[in-house]
Design brief:
The protein is of the alpha/beta class. It has 9 helices and 8 strands.
């Protein structure tokens, strides 16, 4: 299977009634989520490293073919130079490898303050990462998207087999109203450069709560993802939204668009779950 689709988290009560049955319990969320989508971004590890027992439970509760794409902890990526975090990063990788076949690419999200001036530090960090453990990188400093820095970065990533995280925040900036008005952290407004630097790609689509503002961008990604898959590139597609309730539905809609395009994607597990009929009240 070369195509995986999902959201950023699995433990969200607002999905009860649409994604999860109405009476679901929080301890059931991962099991339910992993039988509806095929991957999860796993933002949880950005804030806290799970213990061995938790990782073992994640592995036990998810079906064959489901993958976690976990984010490196912010204590490792957001505290200045990266090379000083190499031992801790390798320890994190070792801990997460307990997931076995359920572990997808890990990704490092760098803060906006981490600029191209630190390319040597970044290169040293990436060189220390094991080649047999897929890693993806997301940069946020605006200069990374300009020449000559973008070409230098892509060359390093290609040489080391590190994927480029493709962040698309255009939908939330595509309408006059502020879709992120009540968010504490706003997504960066950066250009989309759909460059592939590894045999896989992580795409983070920051959707607008109103579907009409997503349409043009989703259609663009349908064409790109279809092309990637036909080239044998493995694609992980994650849908975010400032209104979290909307994320699963948008992800499911993107799956439908891919199927209409006859893209080589597997069936979405969510679509194979029989819907429980509503009992009619006759009295």
């Amino acid at each position: 299977m070369n195509f995986f689709i999902g959201c950023a988290v699995w433990a969200y009560k607002g999905w009860m009634g649409e994604l999860y049955p109405p009476a679901s319990k929080p301890k059931e969320f991962l099991q339910l989520y992993s039988r509806r989508f095929t991957t999860v971004e796993g933002n949880t590890t950005f804030y806290a490293i799970p213990d061995k027992e938790t990782v073992a439970r994640w592995r036990a509760e998810t079906p064959k073919g489901f993958e976690f794409c976990l984010k490196l902890p912010r204590d490792l990526t957001h505290n200045g130079l990266l090379q000083s975090s190499i031992p801790a990063a390798l320890k994190f990788l070792e801990q997460m490898q307990e997931l076995g076949d359920h572990l997808g690419p890990i990704f490092a999200q760098l803060p906006p303050s981490y600029s191209p001036e630190l390319l040597d530090d970044l290169t040293g960090f990436l060189e220390a990462w094991p080649r047999n453990a897929p890693l993806a990188l997301e940069v946020r400093h605006a200069d990374w998207f300009k020449e000559p820095h973008i070409s230098r970065l892509n060359a390093v990533l290609q040489e080391l087999g590190v994927g480029r995280v493709l962040l698309d925040t255009r939908p939330v900036y595509s309408s006059p109203e502020d879709a992120q008005l009540h968010l504490y952290r706003r997504k960066p407004q950066l250009p989309v450069q759909p460059t592939i630097t590894a045999p896989f790609s992580l795409i983070r689509f920051i959707s607008h709560p109103s579907r009409q503002h997503n349409e043009a961008f989703l259609e663009e990604w349908v064409s790109l993802v279809d092309g990637y898959l036909r080239q044998g590139i493995r694609v992980y597609f994650f849908v975010h939204c400032p209104v979290d309730e909307k994320s699963p539905g948008t992800a499911r809609y993107f799956q439908q668009l891919l199927e209409q395009q006859n893209a080589p994607v597997p069936a979405l597990p969510w679509d194979t779950i029989e819907q429980t009929p509503t009992q009619l009240n006759l009295f």
